[in-house]
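Q: Hi! First time doing this. I have a protein sequence and I read that you can turn it into a structure. Is that right? Here it is:
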Amino acid sequence: MAETTYVEAIRQGIWEEMERDDTVFVMGEDVAVYGGAFKITKGMLERFGELRVVDTPLAESGIVGAGTGAAINGLRPILEMQFADFMACGFDQITNFAAKCRYRWGQAIPMVIRAPAGGNIHGGPFHSQNVEMPYVHTPGLKVVQPSTAYDAKGLIKAAVRDDDPVIFLEHKYLYRSVKEELPTQDYTVPIGEAGVRREGSDISIITYGWMVHVALEAAENAAEEGISVEVLDLRTLVPLDRQAILDTAKKTNKVVLLHEDTLTGGLGGELAGIISEYAFDYLDGPLVRIAAPDTPVPFSETLERAFLPSVEDVVAKVRWLHRF
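A: Yes, that's right. Below is the predicted 3D structure, encoded as structure tokens:
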């Protein structure tokens, strides 16, 4: 069986959901004729027609507003933001309208907002940001970031079927750098469930997105020094799988919180709060955060490499925490 890339897995998931349910449609900048900035919607215009594959103006606020209206009227829109950075242009529609409809009058908004995020592609400060936290902080939204092709397909399908708005973050560096064999039968990955990527007994690394692969490589290196590292992939940032977070903390008693987003206000602080409040008695060392520094993402390849958390950074912190 041929291996499927992360980007193709998302494409397959969307295609299959459009085949399964004729209320599903895609909308965004260059998604129709051009096939999407990263070619995820390639061929969909020819297969599903211009009423279900809709090109829009360069107006994220308008895209989200139109998508929300379509969802209210019984459709299931999948909105593509060319880069996650530009969701900021639709922030009011996302956070002050779509996210609040169920709370205000019980109105479901079955809408997915797809957003290519993350660095390590030398895209500079406007095309490389990790924008999850404003949306994590907004009640009414679900936020997902898969790290594997299997999860990318299963989670996009679960997101399309969900009756609440889902921010679906896709790490651009993973698009063609990871691949695996996928099941031929229909499947979904439940929103809100973390997954243990590697079992360990000395230290836990809790992370998500591209950093899962950084953590796994660091765990391999640490194993050569006799340190057993467990890697927990959150997969979903809202709702968090609190049980899985506490289980791994209680199991290893030492925890590293790793994310690509900048340090201040990043998810690591929320994870630290959960563990400190509910598993403090199990800890044998301080909670360690590894994140990007509080600066914009550099355009320079050399500076970007220094900016992003690396395998070497993680191994150094794991060594330190193991000695503690």
